[in-house]
Amino acid sequence: MRKLDNRTYIILLAVSTVFWFLFYKNNQIHLSVVLNALLLIYIREYKKAIKFAITYIMMILLACLFAGKIALMYIVLNMLARSIPIIMVVTCIVSGNSSELMSSLQKLKIPKPIIVMICIMIRFFPVLSKESVAIRNGMKARGIFSGWQDYVKHPFLAYECFIIPLIIRCIKLSDELGATAELRGLNADKNRTCIYDVRFGLKDVFAVIVYGTVIGLIYFGA
Amino acid sequence: MIEFQKVYFSYKEGDSSIKDISFLIKPGECTILCGKSGSGKSTILRTVSGLAPVFYEGILQGKVEVDKLVPAGLESEERAKLFGVVFQDPRSQFFMNTVQDEICFAAENIGASPNKIKEMLYEVSEFIGIRDLLSRNIDELSSGQKQKVAIASSLILQPKVLILDEPTSNLDIQGSKVLIEIIKKIKDKGISVVISEHRLDSFKEVADRFLYINKGKLDEIWTRKEFENLSDEKLLSLGLRPKTVEKKANNDIENDKEPLLDIRSLSFRYKKTNSGIDNINLKLYKGEVVSLLGNNGAGKTTLCRVISGLLREKTGTIKYKGKISNCNLRNKFCYFVMQDADYQLYSDSVSGEIAFGKKVTEKVKEKLIESLNTFKLMELKDRHPASLSGGEKQRVTLAAAYCSEADIYILDEPTSGMDGDGLCAIIRWVKLLAEKGKIVIIITHDLLLAEATSNKFIYLEEGEQVKEGRNII
């Protein structure tokens, strides 16, 4: 992965969020998806770029299908599709290296508790999805909710069955993570160091300028 | 190095506590804490590291000193330098995504210089033997490798005390051997090692002393020699795992009948990793107990997931009572009890859990009462499953399985993290199921359990059935 500094991504996220609020035409959102896909390609996250692009196109097509028929679906799908460009920039931060991210955030003078929270959150997403799969398997293994029909028939029960073990597991995990954090010096008063060289370099400046110019052009041009 | 003098600790909620504990551990000594589940072993470990009362609130009395320092009064940084701690489930203590970052984590936190950290990283990864894993993603590692990473991360600051909480519970036999070798090397460096463990026998090479904790009190201290001389009866009476068990008699299965389950050239491959199982052939008869043995990643769980219908086979057939059955059907007559019972408990009471998903008819009620009685859960029937101990939870899932219509039971590592009483209980339940004519398949690394219950042993290696027999080889 060709990397930019995490501070660059944070700036890009801020810039794209501001414009995202300003965009009033569908074309502008389309183009910003293209721009962010190019950003993902630039940092060599090809698969993610393709995945997001396809998801976006599917959602827009579906929304068009529902247009004029089921208004609620149209609105929901459009909202989801609209959030994709922002999620794409967030992906750049999340899929990177947590150690570097902590270091970058520290350089931005963000308070330590918040840095720790962000990093644990990033770490928690994959864990959550793994836990969910395990619970799903657990249900299936007990012969409960073995087919999708059962979910449709008893949606609330299914939700309960899923959420209770998930909460119990999360409490257990967070308890242990907290204890480990204490034992591994995460609460130490000193400034954290990082084995990687975290630097805001020329290519970061270049990226911010190009990204800012293009998104500006999209806003004023499209 | 570690000194305890008349130490008492009680948690804020006042549930479990330790009483009047006194002992002394020298540098480079390996001490094993043993005792029944819930006897207070973990609390002692927490008091050693100062987590109790700093993180787990409670009242501490008496004198605790580690390297002439009081652990409860240490700053986070000093604590990180003094102790290395590895928890039972290494998964829940990783903060970073790659092995290298994880190992460096503690050193970065206390602000060591990057060059110094890199030096220490290479030193510790060489020492543990994971140099080749440094750039790997942690989620891709096997449980044995994860454990090594966890140990390496706890050693980076060159602590004086290493604390391991049930380190073998997720390891296979090979992994446990490697762990013992690593502990030997750590001891040679003069680091004191304190381990809480149920599988004592595997530690007899490295342990200098065994402390037996009972109901929060230090009841007995054994040297290695004294431990070796303890009889199985004595160990069992103390609630510890015995060294050997009575083998199951092998002549009680009639093999001339039609097999209940007939598996022929069964194969499955995961798309992502292309690992899986190949050409498995197996005939199982009513009342048979089979142990699936083999290292982690050999395909034991995969095979059982295919048998139980959680995965669809790629090729091959599974016949149940002489008829080919697809995975939906198999899902009905197989019952898979996962290693971690938390994933399989959904209801708000034990009796609700056992009858979960069934229409409450008179017949189900009868069956429910029978299950509660058989698994001795009558007293617990109104408790919330989440409030039970690990062994009790497992018993509830077994009772739920018993109450279902299933004929085939699959138990995944049922004795992981269990004391002697837990082991005996599982042996009893498995025998009971077999007597009722059910087939029980056990995935395990626990040879005691396998020996005591099974009349067939199947060894898997890289997804292939390498050995099969009526005795452990």
Task: Kindly describe this structure.
The complex is a heterodimer of chains A (222) and B (473). Chain A is mainly α and 222 residues long. Chain A contains nine helices and no strands. Chain A is 78% helix and 0% strand. Helix content of chain B is 33%, strand content 25%. The two termini of chain B are 43 Å apart. The model of chain B has no long low-confidence stretch (mean pLDDT 87). At the A-B interface, helix 5, helix 6 and helix 8 of A face helix 3, helix 4, helix 5, helix 11 and strand 15 of B.
Describe, in short, the structure shown.
The complex is a heterodimer of chains A (222) and B (473). Chain A has helices spanning 6-22, 26-42, 46-66, 71-94, 98-107, 112-141, 148-153, 155-183, 202-221.
- Envelope shape of chain A: flat
State the major sheet of chain A: none
Radius of gyration of chain B, rounded?
24 Å
Instruction: Assign a percent range to the helix content of chain A.
Output: over 70%
CATH architecture of the largest domain in chain B: 3-Layer(aba) Sandwich
For the largest interface, the chains and their residue counts are:
A-B, 49 and 67 residues
Q: Order of strands side by side in the largest beta sheet of chain B?
A: 5-6-7-3-8-9
Number of strands of chain A: 0
Report low-confidence residues of chain A grouped into runs of 5 or more.
none
- How many β-strand stretches of chain B? 19
Proportion of residues in β-strands of chain B: 15-25%
Task: Offer a few descriptive terms.
heterodimer; A: 222 residues; mainly alpha; 2 domains; B: 473 residues; alpha/beta; Rossmann fold; 19 strands
Topology:
The complex is a heterodimer of chains A (222) and B (473).
Chain A: H1 6-22, H2 26-42, H3 46-66, H4 71-94, H5 98-107, H6 112-141, H7 148-153, H8 155-183, H9 202-221
Chain B: E1 2-11, E2 17-25, E3 30-34, H1 41-49, H2 51-54, E4 58-66, H3 76-82, E5 83-86, H4 99-109, H5 114-128, H6 143-155, E6 161-165, H7 173-188, E7 192-196, E8 209-214, E9 217-223, H8 224-228, H9 232-237, E10 261-269, E11 276-284, E12 289-293, H10 300-307, E13 315-320, E14 323-324, H11 327-333, E15 334-337, H12 350-354, H13 362-374, H14 390-403, E16 408-412, H15 420-435, E17 439-443, H16 447-453, E18 456-461, E19 464-469
Parallel strand pairs in B: 3-7, 3-8, 5-6, 6-7, 12-17, 12-18, 15-16, 16-17
Antiparallel strand pairs in B: 1-2, 1-4, 8-9, 10-11, 10-13, 13-14, 18-19
Helix pairs in contact in B: 4-5, 4-6, 5-6, 13-14, 14-15
